Amino acid sequence: MSAFNAIGENVERDRNEYTPGLEPQPTWCPGCGDFGVLKALKGAAAELGLSPEEMLVVTGIGCSGKLNSYFDSYGFHTIHGRSLPIARAAKLANPGLTVVAAGGDGDGYGIGGNHFMHSARENHDMTYIVFNNEIFGLTKGQTSPTSPMGHKSKTQPHGSAKQPLRPLSMSLNAGASYVARTAAVNPNQAKDIIVEAIEHDGFSHIDFLTQCPTWNKDAKQYVPYIDINDSEDYDIDVSDRKSASDLMYETENALNEGTVLTGRYYHDEDRPSYQQEKQNIGEMPEEPLAERYFDEDYEWERSYDMFLDKHK
Ligand SMILES: Cc1ncc(C[n+]2csc(CCOP(=O)(O)OP(=O)(O)O)c2C)c(N)n1
Ligand code: SF4
Ligand SMILES: [Mg+2]
């Protein structure tokens, strides 16, 4: 694929460039939806012409958290629920980096829910992919925040008595400026959505339905799916919050009843990102923070000397 990279060169990139030479092959189970995310992310990076050095993939803990081991770029495998604060710090320190944060539904909607809500509210410029398999996969199938009511698992043997969390509605209401849902069974749509999300300046949230054939037999494969942007049965204006909100609510109900709706729901192209707001008020440089530690000859300066000078 051909595209212009960050320094304006026309480069040809192939999705296989993001396959690490040294890492082991993915250890995900056969048929796992996580393979679909990896494939879509590689396709999106190639289409955007991003070199591995221009990207950072930050992950949480879970089967989903292994994503950055299998994708060749800068990577940071953090702790459970904490991918977003690390991703935010990296983006603030190096505004030129393309930052993708990723993790599971337990990771992002459970233990990391607070970070999710506030990253959306603050509109941090990054793409957040949540692998939503509606259970805790790595720890062998416990009920997660998105497990449907009545879902039986080892932790809820008589069926979950809780209503599932509504990830799209939560994201929109918290303030995300791009919200979409896709599914591993729809790799072309998934790739296109990741391209759009990365190109978007602000917090883009993708709820990515990833089947777990090992522990979540109930969820099946998320097929057949309906693309709300292509279907004649749906008429959505993605720039209109009310329209997005209504269809998200319907989508979340439909999933619990077995109908899989996917697509782009909301895209606000006008709202400045947190990084832009900080730059506008002069609180954030446009160059990477690390470059401040170079002297005129482009040699590293000792950072504490600079801090001492600053406080004299
Ligand atoms: C603080 C903390 N609590 C609990 C765990 C155990 N743990 C590891 S992965 C996981 C759940 C993973 O589920 P999810 O985030 O949905 O990812 P999946 O494996 O389904 O991709 C849990 C509870 C942990 N590693 N750290
Ligand atoms: S346990 Fe489920 S989510 Fe984890 S690798 Fe296997 S199929 Fe995928
Ligand atoms: Mg999960």
UniProtKB/TrEMBL annotation:
Start and end residues of each stretch annotated as Disordered: 142-164
Any GO BP: cellular respiration
Keyword annotations: Oxidoreductase, Pyruvate
One Pfam family of this chain: TPP_enzyme_C
CDD domains the UniProt entry points to: TPP_OGFOR (cd03375)
Co-factor(s): [4Fe-4S] cluster
Keyword Oxidoreductase: yes
Domain (Thiamine pyrophosphate enzyme TPP-binding): residue spans on this chain: 61-208
Keyword Oxidoreductase listed: yes
Domain of life: Archaea
Molecular function terms, GO-annotated: oxidoreductase activity, acting on the aldehyde or oxo group of donors, iron-sulfur protein as acceptor; thiamine pyrophosphate binding
Database matches in NCBIfam families: PorB_KorB
Name of the protein in question: Pyruvate ferredoxin/flavodoxin oxidoreductase subunit beta
